[in-house]
Amino acid sequence: MSEGLILRGRALAALYGRIPSYHVSLNLGSPLSPLDLESRLQAAVHTRRTFAIISHPDAGKTTLTEKLLLYGGAIHLAGSVKSRRAARHATSDWMKLEQERGISVTSSVMQFQYDGFNINLLDTPGHEDFSEDTYRTLVAADSAVMLLDNRKGVEDRTRQLFSVCKRRRIPIFTFVNKCDRVGEDPLKLLSDVEADLDIACHPITWPIHKDNAFVGVYDRRRQLVSLFERADDHGASRAAVQVSSLHDPALADLIGSESHHRLIQDISLLDEAGHPFDEEKVTSGELSPVFFGSALTNFGVEPFLREFLELAPEPAPRESSLGVVQPNDEQFTGFVFKIQANMDARHRDRVAFVRICSGRFEAGMQVKHVRTGKSIRLASPQQFLARERTAVEEAWPGDVIGVMDRGTLRIGDTLSEASDLEFSGIPRFAPEHFARVVIGDPMKRKQLDSGLRQLTEEGAAQVFFTSGTETSGPTPIVGAVGMLQFDVMLHRLEHEYGAMCRLERITARYPRWVTGPVAEIERIARDRGRMLLYDAKGNPLILFEDSWGLRWALERETSVTFHEVAP
Ligand code: G4P
User: Fold this and answer.
1) Is 414's C-beta closer than 6 angstroms to any atom of ligand 1?
2) Are residues 306 and 353 in the same domain?
3) d(Cα 35, Cα 70) in Å, to the nearest integer?
4) Per the domain annotation, does 526 fall within a domain?
5) From atom 14 of ligand 1, which residue's Cα is the shortest distance away?
6) Within this chain, do residues 122 and 78 fall inside the same structural domain, yes or no?
């Protein structure tokens, strides 16, 4: 198998010594009787949890991911400070590292098992310039864990990602990290989160302090106290977890009567004045269950994981063009949320990441590629564990599999065993930066076009033209959500397609897709000499010069409709 499919998790995992080879699911034989299929499908759905961690850089996502994998048995020794820094480095200096070590910064998936659950942890790039990739990954997740630094609370990027989750109405869990050092008062921190994000919070675990040091957590749902031992090796081995009840007199001896008193006071306050736990509100994303801990010292991570797996939703039903698809539907369906190409420069392989929505996936099965109506065979399907990718024989709703693709699949495509349903798609966000692509050698135009087509299909770039009828205008215009995406584009155009280019930045950066009468759209663009562009599907988009111009148009131009995401 090629070395090419490298997940960001490898950045962590590659640095640890022994990683067991690990298979998420095994071939248990086929064909299945309908009854077998039904019961196995139910059991599989019941134990699947598919989620992503959202956070501002530096809140501790890499560290927490590493600890979760540790509990999943994927990594026996959690990483050292040095390795974590190397992993984080990958996000800021990706190209060099990508070349040298094959580390990918784009989203990928890590699968592991814990306590009878099969977990798909969707990783997202740390760098905000890849936020489009993150948005798409969130569409494949059934819930999100919002990670906060206990001194900083909600930060810019947390806010951005939170709003994407909120739009999708998925459950959002909160993990307040870095509790090993003194941070904001937990009550104040939560009230700030509530005010800032307009979401109610319900702490499931609560920090216990002794002499200002974080010594454990109290689990309100289970009425359990977990005390931790601070290991010299920063939690590099499994933390010991001792449990007793809140009113156990031994607890006062352990943490001192002052801390005990404060804990009882805090919990009574939460019981009386806080938001009560309400499962429905959790499911609809209105109430966030909150946990406290420290990923670095491994305090509170396991109590979080246990509760989270129980409270987090199973794979959710999904809207489609033919109605809601239930995960227990026996017919296999799924959609592509990510395409990663040329992961192995020698083979030009291209892997499409498919989130399974219903039914049973079986290696080699023929499925319908709904957009083209063609039947395709899903070749060499794989599942992932940090460092490993393993051939998969079967997979279930909630799972993510990677399938080899020869250029047929695109982001958002639906795959279905039989029917013509299509999932409602993956939002394409308006880019915030635009530039003209100027080719160094005009003889390489073909290479440029094929590179741009590939990058567009992968979602790594958005390409626009100045005429709705051309698909390769004289000077294509590219759009990106973050500036770093431009560097990636130029690098890949040159190294993968042999088309050396430079970019001429366009200053206008407030785009909106527009629907309505063509004459009106053209008039609005012409009025102030604005740029009228067309995306690869021919949808018109107006580029506004500044936020004032955009606001003005939004308020007054009522004959057309403006869209922030592609219609
Ligand atoms: P990120 O992926 O969200 O960007 O964060 P990452 O895990 O890399 O952690 C960012 C910094 O926060 C690191 O410190 C890391 O050690 C620290 N950190 C993570 N979890 C905790 C925690 O529970 N408590 C404390 N006190 N610190 C934590 P750094 O100094 O920036 O890097 P390093 O030298 O530790 O690698």
Assistant:
1) no
2) no
3) 36
4) yes
5) 58
6) yes
Question: In the structure, what pLDDT confidence band is assigned to residue 18 with cuts at 50, 70 and 90?
Answer: very low
Within 231-274, residue ranges assigned H as helices are 249-255, 257-273
3-state secondary structure of 79: coil
Residues 494 and 397 in one domain: no
| Total tally of structural domains belonging to the chain | 3
Question: For ligand 1, is residue 266 a contact (CB within 6 Å)?
Answer: no
Which strand (E) or helix (H) includes residue 186?
A: helix 186-197
In this prediction, residue 461 carries a pLDDT of 80
- Let me know: does 8 contact 107? Beta carbons within 8 Å: yes
388 CA from centroid of ligand 1 (Å): 25
Domain check: are 358 and 479 in the same one? no
Ligand 1 atom with the smallest distance to the CA of 85 is 36
Q: Kindly state if the Cβ of 57 falls inside 6 Å of ligand 1.
A: yes
Ligand 1: distance of its center to the CA of 404 in Å?
35
Tell me how far the alpha carbon of residue 84 lies from the centroid of ligand 1, in angstroms.
8
Residues 455 and 401 in one domain: no
Task: Give the domain extent around 366.
Answer: 318-416
CA 122 to centroid of ligand 1, rounded, Å: 20
Q: Is residue 129 part of a domain?
A: yes
pLDDT in tens, 284-304: 999 999 999 999 988 889 889
Residues 276 and 385 in one domain: no
Q: Angle CA(255)–CA(81)–CA(173) in degrees, nearest 5?
A: 60
The pair phi, psi for residue 270, each rounded to 5°, is -65, -40
40-49, 80-89, 253-262: range with highest mean pLDDT: 40-49
Nearest protein Cα to ligand 1, atom 4? 58
Q: Which of 70, 81, 234, 296 to mutate to test the pocket of ligand 1 (most atoms within 8 A of CB)?
A: 296
Q: In 3D, which of 532, 539, 476, 540 has the Cα closest to residue 502?
A: 476
Q: Answer yes or no: is 33 within a domain.
A: no
